[in-house]
Write a structure and sequence with these properties.
Blueprint: H1 14-22, E1 29-30, H2 47-59, H3 72-83, H4 88-92, E2 95-101, H5 102-118, E3 122-127, H6 131-139, E4 143-148, E5 150-151, E6 156-157, H7 159-166, E7 174-178, H8 191-204, E8 207-212, H9 226-234, E9 238-243, E10 255-261, H10 265-282, H11 289-298, H12 301-331, E11 348-350, H13 355-365, E12 367-368, E13 374-376, H14 382-396
Parallel strand pairs: 1-12, 3-4, 3-7, 7-8, 8-9
Antiparallel strand pairs: 2-10, 5-6, 9-10, 11-13
Helix pairs in contact: 2-11, 2-12, 3-11, 5-6, 5-10, 8-9, 12-14, 13-14
The structure holds 4'-deoxy-4'-aminopyridoxal-5'-phosphate.
Cofactor: pyridoxal 5'-phosphate
Organism: Alginatibacterium sediminis
Subunit structure: Homodimer.
Length: about 400
């Protein structure tokens, strides 16, 4: 039977990494996948992670299974990151968290619960959004609809279009929001817009699902939760998919969390029992190591401080690269005005480069960028900047 199966198309982002690896040109630049690179072009293990791993090596006494929902201390620490250490959502027990295999696993947990236990049929995602969102939600049988988000002419949030397209959301539909550092545009709502969106959502009865994969990459760990915390103020029910791949650099350890907030602790427990039943049937219980590392860090004040500093270092380096990129393009005589890139948040930037320009950058200059023109700014360094900008200027003509 297997020969009747047609080949799946390569994943647009991970497929690009494969092509990059196979490229034998010595001067090559990968700005495709969203992985943080330091000034040397490396993705090192964070120092604080190394310290926590040393502690774990000392203290770990068993490799026995975790519970279905995973490490409880980790779950509590995740909730404090999301809602704030003093939040009554955390102390009241209205929130329950399952340790999940990456943010992707958490999105899957959310979709499965919504489809199988809430009878939800539709999810609204921004246009554009992370390429894998559609895969995850469609695999669970959800119909994926888009709300407007990006204005390609002004290279900014099209807030009026966003609001008017969101008017079509029916009561009880899922609405996916990027907690911060919107992927792929790097453009987030401002504080007033978040507040208004939260009010509209509460009025209309949307079920918000926050995808929170870049906490700490926009302004700071606490500051970046502003949008979510606005929603948490006036929603009795919401869901969050956290990823710690980027902000702890734990990409291959698959560390994420699915958090459900209900009206009361009792309702939370009842609903969460079905989340657990879904996990049991899927991967039974989560892998331990990465979440244990995050838990050690977040439950130790000094290590938490160190982590904040390391996240700040990554954030600042990316911001510096944004500035240098815009300056170098200008110095090299770029026709376009790229200054909008300086105002964007997180790892990504929507460059405005066309599909043809992206193709030429790859074939003629060994510069790898996703077809949509999304650039991972985190892949830029002082060393590759000149070559990169000269290539872009060349394909502009
Ligand atoms: N959501 C968004 C917006 C992302 O960019 C990513 C990672 N690229 C994820 C979720 C998934 O993260 P993870 O690798 O932890 O599954």
């Amino acid at each position: 039977m297997f020969e009747l199966v047609s080949a799946a198309p390569a994943d647009p982002i991970l497929g690009l990494t494969e092509a990059f690896k196979e490229d034998t040109r010595t001067q090559k630049i990968n700005l495709g996948v969203g992985i943080y690179k330091n000034e040397d072009g490396q993705t090192p293990v964070l120092n604080v992670v190394k310290k926590a791993e040393a502690k774990l090596l000392e203290s770990e006494s068993s490799k026995s299974y975790l519970s279905i929902e995973g490490n409880a201390q980790y779950g509590l620490a995740v909730q404090k990151l999301l809602f704030g250490a003093d939040s009554d959502i955390v102390s009241s027990g209205r929130a329950l968290t399952a340790q999940s295999p990456g943010g992707t696993g958490a999105l899957h947990n959310a979709a499965e619960f919504a489809v199988n236990h809430l009878g939800i049929k539709t999810i609204w995602v921004s246009n554009p959004t992370w390429a894998n969102h559609g895969n995850v939600f469609k695999a669970m049988g959800l119909e994926v609809k888009q709300y407007e988000y990006y204005n390609a002419n002004t290279k900014s949030l099209d807030y009026p279009a966003m609001l008017s397209s969101l008017e079509q959301v029916a009561k009880g539909d899922l609405v996916l929001l990027h907690g911060c550092c919107h992927n792929p545009t790097g453009i987030d709502p401002d504080a007033a817009q978040w507040k208004e969106l939260a009010n509209i959502s509460a009025d209309k009865g949307w079920l918000p699902l926050f995808d929170f994969a870049y906490q700490g990459f926009a302004t700071g760990i606490e500051e970046d939760a502003l949008g979510l915390r606005e929603f948490a103020k006036n929603h009795s029910e919401l869901m969050i998919a956290s990823s710690f791949s980027k902000n702890f650099g734990l990409y291959n350890e698959r560390v994420g969390a699915f958090t459900l907030v209900a009206k009361t602790p009792e309702v939370a427990k009842q609903a969460f029992s079905q989340v657990k039943a879904g996990i049991r049937a899927n991967y039974s219980n989560p892998p331990s190591h990465g979440a244990a590392v995050v838990s050690i860090i977040l439950n130790d004040e000094a290590l938490t401080q160190e982590w904040h500093q390391e996240v700040a270092d990554m954030r600042v380096r990316i911001k510096e690269m944004r500035d240098l990129f815009v300056k170098t393009l200008k110095d090299e005589g770029a026709k376009g005005d790229y200054s909008f890139i300086q105002g964007q948040n997180g790892m990504f930037s929507f460059s405005g480069l066309s599909k043809e320009q992206v193709a030429s950058l790859k074939s003629d200059f060994a510069v790898y960028i996703v077809g949509s023109g999304r650039i991972s700014v985190a892949g830029m360094t002082k060393n590759n900047m000149l070559a990169l900008c000269q290539a872009i200027v060349a394909v502009e003509n």
